[in-house]
Design goal:
The complex is a heterodimer of chains A (118) and B (115). Chain A is built from no helices and eleven strands. Chain A is mostly beta strands. The termini of chain A are far apart. Helix content of chain B is 0%, strand content 53%. The chains are: A mainly beta (118), B mainly beta (115).
Chain lengths: 118, 115
């Protein structure tokens, strides 16, 4: 039974470059969440998917951020024209919703992708 | 709006001591979930417990216990006979029961257990 996996684990990039992160949820989980965690803070919600549909986005998710989950399985989070303020840990979580969008099981997290923008 | 406050930024104790991590929350929802997650140095958030607001019974799991008091909007976490492996950052979180059920986290408490 594999957990949530994320790739890469670390990414160092120069300001202005584009980066893409991947998240593979627990196989039967139909919900997938992205969070961002800056140093010394708790994670903050960015967006979530129910299967392939992106149902909610935080105001933290600026126009430079885009997330996809094309087949309802893995998800990608892309940041365009990175800025130093984007440096953070990007966490992915998944959960199982058995009730057609009403109630969901506990969210389980991946190891995160640590982004450093120079 | 939902809010979680963990007033203790850092706690340091000697091994085998008992330690309690405080969590206070705010929500207008009548039903909600409360959680505790552990984040060891490796960075991955490890789920510890989920509690439905309907269920105010305290829970014990080995050396861990949780005290949920709806009247004071608190969900405190106690580690009995602490061990060095308990050293981590601990997060309390809150979510709605329906809809996105996104987690709202506190700032975390860094717990250091010294040998």
């Amino acid at each position: 039974d594999t957990g949530v996996s994320q790739d890469p684990r670390h990414k160092i990039t120069k300001r202005g470059q584009n980066v893409t992160f991947r998240c593979d949820p627990i196989s039967e989980h139909n919900r997938l969440y992205w969070y961002r965690q800056t140093l010394g803070q708790g994670p903050e919600f960015l967006t979530y998917f129910q299967n392939e549909a992106q149902l909610e986005k935080s105001r933290l998710l600026s126009d430079r951020f885009s997330a996809e989950r094309p087949k309802g399985s893995f998800s990608t989070l892309e940041i365009q024209r990175t800025e130093q303020g984007d440096s953070a840990m990007y966490l992915c979580a998944s959960s199982l919703d058995l009730t057609s969008g009403m109630f969901s099981d506990t969210q389980y997290f991946g190891p995160g992708t640590r982004l450093t923008v120079l | 709006a939902q809010k979680v406050t963990q007033a203790q930024t850092e706690i340091s104790v000697v091994e085998k001591e008992d330690v309690t991590l405080d969590c206070v929350y705010e929500t207008r929802d009548t039903t909600y979930y409360l959680f505790w997650y552990k984040q060891p140095p490796s960075g991955e958030l490890v789920f510890l417990i989920r509690r439905n607001s309907f269920d105010e019974q305290n829970e014990i799991s080995g050396r861990y216990s949780w005290n949920f008091q709806k009247s004071t909007s608190s969900f405190n976490f106690t580690i009995t006979a602490s061990q060095v492996v308990d050293s981590a950052v601990y997060f309390c979180a809150l979510s709605e029961v329906q809809g996105a059920q996104k987690l709202v986290f506190g700032q975390g408490t860094r717990l250091t257990i010294n040998p």
